[in-house]
């Protein structure tokens, strides 16, 4: 399965770039929170510190990158041209940024208006983006698994936003709702229906393109994203009609789907045409292997009569930090220098290659810090008193290193552009 890309439809570099550059700042904040609150963050998934850190990573770090990626991917991969991509970015970025900060502050302080205000701002930013993306996708046929996956991921984002709003107002207002079950469903839609389906849809293009692997087989590529969304809809219906066996069946389906994609991608990577592994490949290998470990942990916890309360926390750390986030950061190390290089091509010959815009040595140093942060965070689930703060420090440094590397690529892009225009 080969993707047809239309680089002439690429939006201005500044449109996705603002999201890519602001995302690591949320990682720095999450790391600093772990340094300040230490063991409290790893005591339970329900502590204020854990909820704040989780949403700094999901509603801050991940959401920024994924929205920025979609602004770039929709026209290039799907032929869905946003009418005014810079205007979309300028309207969407501020409420997403401020909303994530307010939401994290609301969890930490327990202040109702911060929770509600943060949730409303995040919802507003997402709805503005979905409105523009929906107009762009209207009439675009699903001629590839990637295009279908992008459409389904937008639906997953909408479901995540609706459930998040409901939970924020229920928490702030003391509504009598099954908050734990709704929180699990909200997390499932966010991690599987939004982040997971988007990652799969984009992987169909970027893994063969940047990692020089064979293409994904067409037939399973078509059914995997709809299968995940179908499982999530089944889970939602099971919660509505109170059928625990149906909910467990849907969870098993999600575990199977995630494991299939991870194993499938690892098998393709073993057949890559480039012998020397690069930073992106290593990040993806970490993400896929850790995601499989997380899914195995979830599977064990789901079928134990009295699971260890650390099981859910371990799943969250492995799947979110070592899984999805690792794959996203790995893609950034290809996407940002590639876009910087691409937007220099109209200036003529002599543009610096991608590996000079963002050096391999700098990327490997940052990757080392990220890997250490993942290992310490995983171990901190079991030894929070000893390892929570070192894990936070390592993650803050890794996030700051990512920001520095991306900013350096942008600086070199601007320097070359100014030199050519002044010549």
Percent strand equals under 5%
Biggest sheet architecture? none
Level-1 CATH class name = Mainly Alpha
- Put simply, the count of helices is 13
Helix content: over 70%
What is the CATH topology classification name?
Answer: Cytochrome C Oxidase, Chain A
Give the total of domains.
1
Total number of β-strand segments?
0
| CATH superfamily grouping | Cytochrome c oxidase-like, subunit I domain
Radius of gyration: 21 Å
The CA-CA distance between the termini, in Å, is 43 Å
Low-confidence stretches: none
- What's the helix-strand series? HHHHHHHHHHHHH
How would you describe the overall organization of this protein?
With 423 residues, the chain is an all-alpha fold. It is 80% helix and 0% strand. α1 runs antiparallel to α2 and α2 crosses α6. The longest helix is centred in the C-terminal third of the chain and has 39 residues, at 384-422.
Feature tags:
mainly alpha; 13 helices; single chain; 80% helix; globular
Provide a compact summary of the structure:
It is built from 13 helices and no strands. By secondary structure, it is mainly α. The protein has a single domain, classed as Cytochrome C Oxidase, Chain A.
List the helices and strands and how they pair.
Layout: H1 14-37, H2 48-78, H3 85-109, H4 112-137, H5 145-173, H6 179-211, H7 218-241, H8 244-269, H9 279-303, H10 310-342, H11 354-357, H12 360-380, H13 384-422
């Amino acid at each position: 399965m080969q993707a047809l890309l239309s680089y002439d439809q690429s939006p201005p570099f500044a449109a996705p770039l603002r999201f890519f550059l602001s995302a690591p700042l949320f990682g720095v904040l999450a790391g600093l929170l772990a340094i300040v609150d230490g063991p409290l963050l790893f005591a339970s998934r329900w502590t204020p510190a854990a909820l704040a850190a989780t949403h700094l990573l999901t509603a801050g770090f991940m959401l920024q990158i994924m929205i920025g990626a979609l602004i770039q991917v929709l026209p290039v991969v799907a032929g869905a041209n946003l009418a005014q991509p810079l205007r979309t970015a300028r309207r969407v970025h501020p409420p997403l940024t401020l909303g994530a900060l307010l939401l994290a502050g609301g969890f930490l302080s327990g202040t109702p208006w911060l929770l509600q205000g943060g949730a409303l701002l995040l919802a507003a930013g997402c709805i503005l983006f979905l409105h523009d993306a929906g107009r762009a996708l209207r009439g675009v046929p699903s001629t590839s698994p990637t295009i279908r996956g992008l459409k389904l991921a937008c639906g997953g984002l909408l479901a995540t936003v609706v459930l998040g709003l409901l939970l924020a107002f229920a928490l702030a207002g003391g509504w009598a709702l099954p908050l734990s079950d709704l929180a699990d469903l909200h997390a499932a839609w966010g991690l599987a229906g939004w982040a997971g389906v988007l990652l799969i849809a984009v992987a169909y293009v970027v893994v063969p393109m940047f990692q020089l692997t064979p293409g994904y087989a067409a037939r399973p590529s078509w059914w995997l994203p709809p299968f995940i969304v179908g499982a999530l809809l089944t889970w939602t219906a099971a919660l509505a009609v109170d059928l625990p066996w149906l909910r467990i069946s849907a969870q098993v389906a999600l575990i199977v789907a995630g494991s299939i994609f991870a194993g499938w991608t690892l098998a393709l990577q073993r057949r890559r045409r480039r012998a020397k592994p690069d930073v992106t490949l290593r990040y993806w290998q970490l993400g896929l292997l850790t995601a499989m470990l997380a899914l195995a942990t979830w599977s064990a916890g789901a079928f134990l009569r009295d699971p260890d309360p650390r099981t859910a926390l371990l799943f969250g750390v492995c799947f979110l930090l070592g899984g999805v986030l690792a794959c996203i950061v790995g893609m950034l190390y290809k996407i940002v220098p590639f876009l910087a290089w691409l937007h220099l091509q109209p200036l003529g010959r002599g543009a610096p290659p991608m590996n000079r815009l963002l050096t391999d040595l700098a990327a490997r140093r940052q990757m080392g810090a990220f890997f250490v942060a993942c290992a310490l965070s995983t171990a901190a689930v079991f030894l929070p008193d000893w390892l929570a703060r070192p894990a936070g420090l390592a993650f803050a440094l890794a996030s700051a290193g990512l920001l520095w590397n991306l900013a350096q690529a942008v600086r070199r892009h601007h320097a070359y552009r100014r030199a050519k225009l002044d010549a």
